Amino acid sequence: MRDVTRQVEDETVKWAMSDVAPMSDEAFDRGRAALLARIDAEKSGEVVALAPRRRRRIPVVAAAAAMVVIAGAALIAPSMMSRDKGPSVGSAAAAELLNQAANLTGDAQLQPGQYLYVSQNARWSMTEYDHRWMYLQDFELQTWIPADRRGTWLYRHHSVGDRQYLIGSVADLSPADLTSHLDGSEEYRSEGGPALHDKIKAGFRDPSPEYLASLPADPKELYRKLRAEVSGDEGLGFLQMVNDGLDTGVYPAAVRSAVYQALSFLPKLEIVEKAAVIGDRSGTALGVTENETTEQIVIDQATGEYLGSRTVLAKDAWGLKQGQVIGTTSVTTKVVAGLGLAS
After folding, report:
1. Angle subtended by helix axes 4-16 and 25-42, to nearest 10
2. pLDDT at residue 197, rounded to an integer
3. Separation of CA 233 from chain center
4. Radius of gyration over every alpha carbon of the chain, rounded to an integer in angstroms
5. For 205, phi and psi rounded to 5 degrees?
6. What's the CA gap between 261 and 255, in Å, rounded?
7. What is the rounded distance in angstroms from the CA atom of residue 264 to the CA atom of residue 272?
8. pTM
């Protein structure tokens, strides 16, 4: 069975090939083999972090090597979900909840000179391919989006607190492992759109204003378009992409509404539980389970607000217990009067 490491490898290949036409299974396998050969070649040199799947809009460009980021990181407390008992409600109820949430979404109203401030908290785990060690690191990611989106966008991100070890200890890391390209702080600006919009092909994970305008309003057509972006995936990979995109905070209410309705077409999507994201914000989690993990989107059922995402172990793995949350994000937005202001 494919583990999370394999999923990270596959996502990396797909990301690297995202600006070319859809490829065959044979071409994908060749690309994956080339990536693994690159990894093996670099294991004897400096170990650097694989750019995290959820954060490609951060301009941290690092080569794939022995250290990987696993889709976020764990809340220490285990999830309430039990895969032995199964999800609480099936896909029909999930579709009903999503359609209700779609009717509740709304937009913050910006005046000229104001900014939409997007505050994102993430807890990511770092590990190596054989999982001899794994640690958690918290991050804060801040984005200021101008009312006129052709203006200046500001980004800040920084690590928060100390590393928390789930597997092993600092003594198990090599000197090269001790430094992560994601540690520390960074500030940067972009003009006329999201960061990297002029360097990578726009997609749901990294939307440009033009991409947003091109999205179909019909949920079924939107589902087909998004499914094509993940090479036909109708499960965990699809939901991961949706969470990645909604984490950016740039999607207007009309698009979020259509996205919720598009998610209702996922054949494996189920209501899992009432779930908390970072900051003690709770909502309803809807998830897809494949192999070791369940990917979840967390929505406030009363307001339709997207709260964040979680990735949960669906079975024991690497010495960690079933139900452990190994990825989480939390997103809040507000209108502020100036660039760099948080209130």
Report:
1. 110
2. 64
3. 16
4. 19
5. -70, -35
6. 10
7. 14
8. 0.72
